[in-house]
Amino acid sequence: MIAAASLVADQGCTSAPVLRERGQREVFCGLTGIVWLHRKMPDAFFLVVGSRTCAHLLQSAAGVMIFAEPRFATAIIEERDLAGLADANEELDRVVRRLLARRPEIRTLFLVGSCPSEVIKLDLARAAQRLAGAFMPDVRIVNYSGSGIETTFTQGEDACLAALVPFMPEPQLDAAPQLLIVGALPDIVEDQLLRLIRDLGITNVACLPARSSRDLPPVGANTRFLLAQPFLGDTALALEDRGAVHLPAAFPFGAEGTTQWLHAAAKSFGVDEMHFRSVVAPGRERAKRALEHSRSRLEGKTIFFLPDSQLELPLARFLHVELGMIPVEVGTPYLHRQHMAAELAQLPATTVISEGQDVDKQLDRVRAAKPDITVCGLGLANPLEAEGFTTKWAIELVFSPIHGFDQAGDLAELFARPLRRRDVLKV
Amino acid sequence: MQLSVWTYEGPPHVGAMRVATGMTDVHYLLHAPQGDTYADLLFTMIERRGKRPPVTYTTFQARDLGKDTAELFQSAARDAVARFNPAALLVGSSCTAELIQDDPAGMAQAMKLSIPVIALELPSYSRKENWGASETFYQIVRTLAVGDSSRPASRQAGSPRPKANLLGPSALGFRHRDDIVEIGKILAVLGIEINVTAPMGAGAGDIARLSDADFNIVMYPEIADTAARWLERTFKQPFTRTIPIGHGATLDFIREVAALAGVDAAPALDLAEARMPWWSRSVDSTYLTGKRVFIFGDATHAIAAARVARDELGFVVCGLGCYNREFARDLRAAAAEHGVEPLITDDHLEVEDAIAAAHPELVLGTQMERHIAKRLSIPCAVISAPVHVQDFPARHSPQMGFEGANVLFDSWVHPLVMGLEEHLLTMFRDDFEFHDGAGASHLAHGTVEPSRAAPAVAFEPQADPVPNRQEAEGDVLVLAGWTSEADIELKKIPFFVRGKARRNTEAYAAELGLASITLDTLYEAKAHYAR
Question: What number is the ipTM of this complex?
Fold first, then answer.
């Protein structure tokens, strides 16, 4: 099974037709990524330049986190800022000065573009340059867009990380091959994966984002990178522009996914196959044991994914390959065929792959398919429950540690719990 | 630009959604990019609605901007009307669509739909949620209400009982669901028929027959005031000014309603369920006397709370404010009556500073003030929107009417240490069960830091990520130059009032420029601050 990554390319859903839809999308915009990115980078502040709606979105999505003095805020554009852009720039400078004076511990300030700032063409790249002149080296100013007209939910992280790539230093001329893990992971998961990678004998390894926003790893022709998250298309391109090489792999969900993902690195770094097996065996066995707890509840059950976080295809593959679930339809906000190749190959050919959304039509398909469990956003979960469908909130999959061997059981449990709850409740 | 880490109100189109979602058969077509759909979860998660809000988002993207967003809008409108078959269509823009200057009203008119189209102009860059709700409700009423304006509504023939409309309750409103029930009870006793409740539960057809009522009851001026004024001008329907929050205000409301309806108020004035006055007069409540309370919320709830606090619980109002500027004048008048500076702001950091400066013993506020109070270790109760999932309890929990007054008593008083309990704690303070570290028996986590064991945390069972800002007690004592004798005496003071004793004494010492705090200073300060 370890050789699964080498499955023939045209298997599974690889060449299946994709249902492309264009209509109302019930998804978050890229600003939402700030909710986990600011926790990953404790020395960074995220300043959204946007409207009251942006501020309201963040406080609604971030819930209680907002009550601790958070490291994110919105510079709310007001009527007079719309009157003249020169004034808007001055206003932005004033807000940034006030903010940085209040928060002297901040080392990186992200200016985050929004729908309104994009539409009025407030040039945040230039603003970042201008402000960098005043605040470097104490504070690095980086800009990216999390606007809903350009990004869907997790694409905000993609845009953020891609914006950091130009700040990554050049490697030394004689630098040894380096493995870069790309994508924000909870620290505990990142440490687990790094331990495994070092046990494989790969010692020159780094992560993007780094835990300190100013301690970015070098990138260059000696860099090979593994994507830890399935939504990092632009970041991958930016890294490739710097000479780095992408190691295609299934994403590290479940015993098999994690094995395939690590195997891609092992192969690239010439790790001996026997050594690889002995390193992954304990974690892999633990993961399989943990998955057994949920298998009886999930095996043979049908699942329908509405598009949300881009995690849909890898998770559907995990649930199908490792727990015997039947994916009916797997929706994804957008389909990156290259990054998803290993996932598509392992999905059953009967799966409908849909890209984009027309939410009302898709809900009609949910009603027709009557899946055992539907994965959807928070706006849809209770209405579907009220119609008698069992649901799983997609956002929990983004906020919970689910990658790697030792989270495989937790990941399965996230899907098993709604079904168990449905069965135990007598009200 | 306004730097904001948290806002009391959402954008105005969220206000429009609250009105549309409260109603039964209208649909709201919102010209908006993807991401604005987040607002759906306010209704489905916080309010636990089992239906999606009746809102279609056109979901334009960057690549559409150079092309024809009008076609996108019109096809979304056609699909929404065909699928949801609404009785009326609201159309409008969110903040981004406002900037691209498509004209939802014109585009919808051009489609010649078979249902009424109500165009909403909600300026996102200058207005906020409550204004949006108010404007939306007003436009709906203006467009759909029909009636004969030439004669006073109350003279309609064939109506044996006076009729009233209940105006203002909406989706995502603070206890609106339960307030409607309480007002209904009062009207039933008075023999007044409810003609229409709107927007909550009303259809377009109900709005059309608003003019059948003799008068209007404005439950929430933030949402219904503009519409009520228009109805008064147009159909000669008078409307109520009293907000029946608290016992006294409920009595005033009953009298006002009875006068408008031309019925006898007496049967409604003495309902057995009005327990609040006796609960407040009973001796256990004596300790409430003179407790300093800081009040902040929407103007309607804040002003009502101030009256209840002073007249019905014997508190002293030490701060009063609201976040909605539209009602600043009312709030200023109330603040003048209570002899405090009005605080009108939507910056919660300013509110936090004001609360810290006022040293209240109880905070009545929104969810934000609840968190501020927790940081400052002050008991708190929530009296106003913005709403939180806790503001939609499964049980009946109104703010208005007699039962509402009962609820206010319970929910404001319980965060304070109960009176008898306070005496018992003093008597038994040396028992091992009552030592400083034991915490309150009704709190699950016995290990809380003593200075934070105040019942304020009873509302928040989860761990609080905010570090306690107060310095350790020892440090403060050293800094303030307490003599060991005074220090030992201070420790004899029950832990739940010790912080205040310490603050007062140190303030007193600072005021007099004393170098050290002795036993005498402690008691002189006590006398100084005695009331």
Answer: 0.93
